[in-house]
Amino acid sequence: MTSLMTRKKTSTIVILSLLYGNSVFAEVKFNAGALDVGDSTKIDLSRFTDADYVMPGTYLLDIKFNQKMLPQRSVEYLRIDDKKESVLCLPPDIIPQMALKEEIAKKVILWHDNQCADISSVPGAEISARVGAGVLLITVPQSSLKYNDPNWTPPEQWDRGIPGLLLDYSVSGQVNKLNGSEDTTRSLSTVGTVGANVSSWRLRGDYQGTYNARGGESDSNFDWSQIYAYLPLPMHAAKVTVGEMLLNSQVFDSFRFAGANIASDERMLPPELQGYAPQVRGVAKSNAKVTVSQSGTVLFQTTVPAGPFSIDNLSSGVRGRLDVRVEEQDGSISTFQVDTASIPYLTRPGYVRYNIAVGQPSTFGRHREGPFFTTSDFSWGIANAWSLYGGTLIGGEYNAWSLGLGRDLSVLGALSVDMTQSYAKFPTEETNSGMSFRVNYAKRFEEYDSQITFAGYRFSQRQFMTMNQFLQKRYNDYSNELEQFIGREKEQYTIAASKTLMAHDREKAVTVYLNYSHQTYWDSRSQDRYGFSASKIFNIGKIRNVTAAISAFRTETNGRNDDSITLNFTMPIGERRSVGYALQTNNNDVTNVASYNDYTDQNNTWQVSSGVNQNGKGLARGFYTHNASFGALNASASYQQDNFSSIGGTFRSGITATQHGVATHRNYSNGSTRLMVDTDGVSGVPINNGRARSNRFGIAVISDVTSYYNTDTRIDVNKLADDVEANTPVVQGTLTEGAIGYRHFEVVQGSKLMAIIKLADGSTPPFGATVLNSKGREMAVVGDEGLTYLTGVEPEELLDIAWDGKHQCKVVVPKAAKSLEQILLPCKL
Predict the structure, then answer these.
(1) Scanning 274, 371, 394, 493, which has its CA 20 to 30 A from the CA of 199?
(2) What is the average per-residue pLDDT within 123-128?
(3) Rounded to 5 degrees, what are φ and ψ at 11?
């Protein structure tokens, strides 16, 4: 009988808890006689009569505005005239984050000595609190807001982050042994960024170092490639940078300088007004190290397996020509260049994009070399379909100006045409003056599932010079007339396009990618780069999702061809496992390779392959990738009969420290935006599909956060330990560039107890009283005769018991309490 009564009481507690958590009516009347309660006079259901009732006090809440999360903060509910009712004191600094129209914002009333804001006069505005879930919901009609794009987070809601320190790094190493040689070659390189965030300023220092050894000889080098600071200006869609940097211009070629720069940042604009990020494609003959650099500064470095590779996570802010270096494990090196010239420089009507810089050119070793200069470029949307753009670069010894016109051709794409005039004067009294003409085009053909990502043509007169070319001639070889035109571009063609054939039928669809660049020089040299790839998925009988792909690249330089062709077939043989066959040709060297790939564990993937070349020589390769919350490792090994043996790899990681803690983490881009997650001291909490886990201090860092883009961060609740619960498993936010964001998850770890709460006089709290933790979060509802079901409580934790609109007494969880144990908890004042 006792057990039956206990079950009834427990059921009543659960029903009340569900009713409280899902209240939908403004006011509810209860028939207390219908409840199975021993003493019907000791019932306090006032807590549940009003869905929006909140007990007076201060609460740490997530602010959810129009379904978008704002940063968590403390919110106070004030008692009015000693009544049980409470009134929300909405912090006034939340109002600017709503991005209300100016005339609407004037209707907001401040009260309580201007410490609280009242938005009830805003048409259609609604506020409701779910304190039990830790959320304050605010809804305002779209017609009252400045912006009408529901899929874009306005600047007023961006988070500049918190102060902190960071260290991001990548270390690559390789050991090669050539057959027939007594020497072993060892190389080690590192690229990274040291940084500090102070208020909205981001301080950064980029470094790179190398170490090479062969036999008894070695050499090493370490340089700070750039030291700079930048400040995002969200309300102006711009960024200020001071220090050493590369000129990021839409008009003039990039070069290194020390000075200051203020420029529009299109990433702060709505998505449809933004540009694109460059992509680097190529083929590795073996497991190889790929380095992408610009003007001597390494932008990205990684290890890739043999075969085609694609690097598409470079910053969208990269401009100009990139140098790509592929170091094979047999010691051979191939290089090529990728032009990242942007799509036509179009701007929406009435809007002006600008870029202003002042400073002095500098060499890689941070030595000043060249004239002090000022430069500015702009793009003005003069009409719905027309943009006028241009700029000037004034440096005394070197001057240039540019002017162009962009046109949105609607269904035909976008086109821009411009010309640049340069003037360069040298100590020998020689003067070079020339012009350069350029045409750019881009088009997305939705109806044909194809896209011309970029197409461009440029012609430069013999006497035309960029700033880089001027500096090279002025300080390195200006007296050598025979070499004065080496490296001077003449014509350049560039195209990058993609096409999906028969996209409507997945089994017949074929995706094709094509890129081509042609560069001629005034000294008769030329360079051509061809790239082609195609892939198709099809079925063979009962074997589904067989993939066939072909990649072909050719680089022609000074009459010498460097060819790479790979034909690859991959067939699944189980869940996330596959076997493959590849026919590889590298400059007429043909190799047949069979491979096995295992992706069953997304954090530990590996592939092994073996084959034979046209001379009958065998080879073997292995490639392993390990992704951990503290970093990512790519490791490789290669052996080719009678040729070489090699091992190598790359480890990428980062460390971020703030006032909330320190954590190591994966590193996707040096010095980039990241989010520090606090799980209330609970370790091992999986986040974002296991890409990160909280460390022993309950801290984790998510480093693949896109700046100015609303991002969800989620706890993997299905993978939590049995004694861990997450009250708020999802947080959102939009971070500015380089920010260290901070988000706090309500995570509890502890026992589940069935407690009987007793007051000092032996009585029990009224039926319906609430149990709160030290953070003001409701944990449970008191049932008949004090019976209460508690979850996630820790030994010696202090809990508040509240009824009649106020806190009445406290209980302490025993130190030796065991999970699912029924215990007695005295409630004391």
Answers:
(1) 274
(2) 88
(3) -60, -40
